[in-house]
Structure formats: C-alpha cells, structure tokens
Amino acid sequence: MYEIREATLSDIDDIVTIRMKMLFELGKLETEDGTRKLRSLTRDFFIRKFQTGEFKVFCAVKDDTIIATTGIQFLERPPLYENPHGIEAYIMNVYTEPDFRGKGVASKLLEKVIEHAKERKAGRILLHAIGKDKRIYEKAGFTSTTDEMQLILKRSL
C-alpha cells in the first residue's frame, strides 16, 4: 500500500528527479537525468515556490519511496461572476513510476489536488493532458476547451 501526502522541502531532490523522468518520457529531454543547469533551475523553482506556498506537490509514497507526484499552482485573476474569488489552479507534473501505473495511484493524487483547490477557493482548475492520459481527467469531470491560445517565446538554457 502507499500513502498520499504533501511533499516537503526534504523531498525536493526526488521531486526534481521525477520531473526529469517525466520530461524525458515526453521527449523534452535527451537524457532521463536532464542537464545540470535544468536540474538546478528546477530545484531552485521548487524551493522558492514551496516556501511561498504558491506551488505544492502531492506525492504517493510506498516504503519511503515517492512513486507518483502531481503539482498544483495557483493564479489570482480579477473576480468573475462564475469565479468570485478569481482564483484558478493549474495542475502539472503528473507522473507515476512505470511499475505503479494503471493501479489508481494518479487518480488518488488527482482527488487530493482537487480537494486542495477547493480548500483554496479556486473557481477553475486547468491542466494540459497529453494523449491517452486524458481519460483520468475526464473521469474526474474535466472537459476539453478550445478557447485558449498561446505564444511561445523561445529561450534556451
């Protein structure tokens, strides 16, 4: 069995390693370990955002080893009728170690971050699902939208 808990600063190095694995699987990195610079920038980001509470990671832990993670970050916008607090949550960095996939671990983590978003009075939760991974989110009630656009400003490390 595993437990679901909020990650702490002592988990940072494991969280960074898991993010590098995720990015590698997505084809965003040439090696599973990533580059020293990217690892350092990622580690610094997590430390800063953990300390301010702007970004939280929840993890599934089995035998003192993190087997899955999901992160959540909050953004405050001007209030709207349908979102009077103006708070939106963004779920990211959802990753489950291959040996634990298909066992409901990610679903439990998703339940936890949705609960956390409700506690923070978020009126909307956003995420970007990739490929077949959409099913887990659809089961939780997420729907696809087509009203977003993006502009990618290229920068390199």
> Distance between the terminal alpha carbons, to the nearest Å?
40 Å
**Text of the CATH class:** Alpha Beta
Low-confidence stretches: none
* Count of individual beta strands: 5
The Cα radius of gyration reads 16 Å
Q: Using the alpha-carbon principal axes, give the shape.
A: globular
- CATH superfamily assignment? Gcn5-related N-acetyltransferase (GNAT)
Strand order of the largest sheet: 1-2-3-4-5
**What number of structural domains do the residues give?**
1
CATH fold call? Aminopeptidase
- The count of helical stretches stands at 4
Helix-strand pattern, N to C? EHHEEEHEH
What would you say the CATH architecture is?
3-Layer(aba) Sandwich
Overall pLDDT confidence? 93
Quickly give the structural class.
Answer: alpha+beta
Tell me the major beta sheet: 5 strands, mixed
The share of residues in extended strands comes to 15-25%
Helix content: 25-40%
Question: What does this 3D model show about the protein?
Answer:
The protein is 33% helix and 24% strand. The chain contains four helices and five strands. Helix 1 (12-25) crosses helix 2. Strands 1-2-3-4-5 form a five-stranded mixed beta sheet, with helices on both faces. It starts with a strand and ends in an 18-residue tail after the last helix. It is an alpha+beta fold and 157 residues long. The chain has one domain (3-139): Aminopeptidase.
